[in-house]
Amino acid sequence: MNRSDLSPPRTTRPEALAVWLFVVAAMVVAIVVVGGITRLTESGLSITQWKPITGALPPLNEAAWAREFDLYRATPQFRYESGPAGMDLAAFKFIYFWEWFHRLLGRLIGLAFALPLAWYWWRGSIPAGYKPRLLALLALGGMQGVFGWFMVRSGLSGASTSVSHFWLSIHLMTALLTLAGLVWTALDLRRLARIGRARRARWTWPASVTGSVLFVQLTLGAWVAGLDAGHASDTWPLMQGRLVPEFDRSRGLFYAATHDPFLIHFLHRWWAWVAVIALVWFARRVRPLERRASIAIHTAFGTQILLGIATVVAGMPLWLAVGHQFVGALLVVAFAWGAHVLGRTPA
Predict the structure, then answer these.
(1) Total domain count for the chain?
(2) Tell me, what DSSP letter sits at residue 347?
(3) For residues 12-40, average pLDDT
(4) pLDDT for position 347
(5) Shared domain check, 228 and 190
(6) Helix or strand or coil: residue 246?
(7) Do residues 341 and 289 share a domain?
């Protein structure tokens, strides 16, 4: 028997790869939701150290919990926001759980992507031309973890009692970009499995226009979350009884548009209608080619608008705010589907 007899079979499996990527995409949606809970419960700074390996386990005894609690009590968030009565260990364990669970999901996503990728690579199951894209998605996942730590570190330095809303938006937008890339690649592979000679979809100018508008809206949403700007108003459509709220103009309009909670809230709620116009136009272009994708886009942005208004009017309850973020992730999935439909070329 020669060495070639021991080599794995060289047969590509695009359908299996597509299913795998859809599963990883679902996990990314889940971590976006858990990330929203982590932010809304102000749990993100409860773990003050980055331990990619040993941090996978939570504290296992009371002494370990006491050490973690001592580290948290040294943070500006605890010193300035815990109130006169402070925070007891039970309350700390609650916020610790959400940050730990968020990081655990990140680790599981990394394993769920990296291990099958290595297996499919070794088996020769990856179709020609897809290896660079899969490696790029792996790199994006790694960057996501690094950006997440930079975000946490921004809230542990100086007198800051919260993470930087800029780092939060980078962390979230990297996750959503990874999500879109996973869906797009899975759709390419699924089409290749069904039509053996199918070419990969191309990016189109309608996708660029609509994607840019959506990018701005999602970034504004991340800033709203990072600055707790959702509490700037509990009325709709007016804020403080007026269309344009009062905001700090002392440092100029650009600074206000990137730092002032009232103005950012205002921009997020009204840029949403620019996004609606863009998405309606985009979905109408998709509809003749794939009606289901068009329906998915309409359903996602319609639900997102209603949830956004309800979240504001109800005073930012956790379940509505998390639902708003969840549907935002689904909107990215629907948009990626529609963009892929527009970019398909004849087999």
Answers:
(1) 2
(2) -
(3) 95
(4) 58
(5) no
(6) coil
(7) yes
Q: Is the predicted pLDDT of residue 8 greater than 50, yes or no?
A: no
Task: Pull the structure tokens for residue 17.
Answer: 């790869």
pLDDT digits (tens, 9 = 90+) for 266-293: 999 999 999 999 999 999 999 999 999 9
**Contact present, 142 and 178 (Cβ < 8 Å):** no
Same domain, 285 and 344: yes
| Same domain? 226 vs 285 | yes
Q: Find the domain containing 295 and state its range.
A: 201-347
Is 6 within a domain?
Answer: no
The pair phi, psi for residue 239, each rounded to 5°, is -120, 125
Would you give the end-to-end CA distance of the chain in angstroms?
A: 41
Residues 40-52: tens digit of each pLDDT: 998 988 998 888 8
Asked if residue 75 is part of any domain, the answer here is yes
* pLDDT at residue 1 in the model: 39
Closest CA to 259 of 269, 273, 270, 247: 247
Exposed, middle or buried by CB within 10 Å (0-12, 13-18, 19+), for 148? buried
Q: What share of the chain is helix, strand, coil (3-state, %, to 5)?
A: 70, 0, 30
45 and 156 belong to one structural domain:
yes
Q: How far apart are CA 310 and CA 225, in angstroms?
A: 16
Q: Using N-to-C axis directions, what is the helix angle for 318-343 and 291-313, rounded to 10°? A: 160
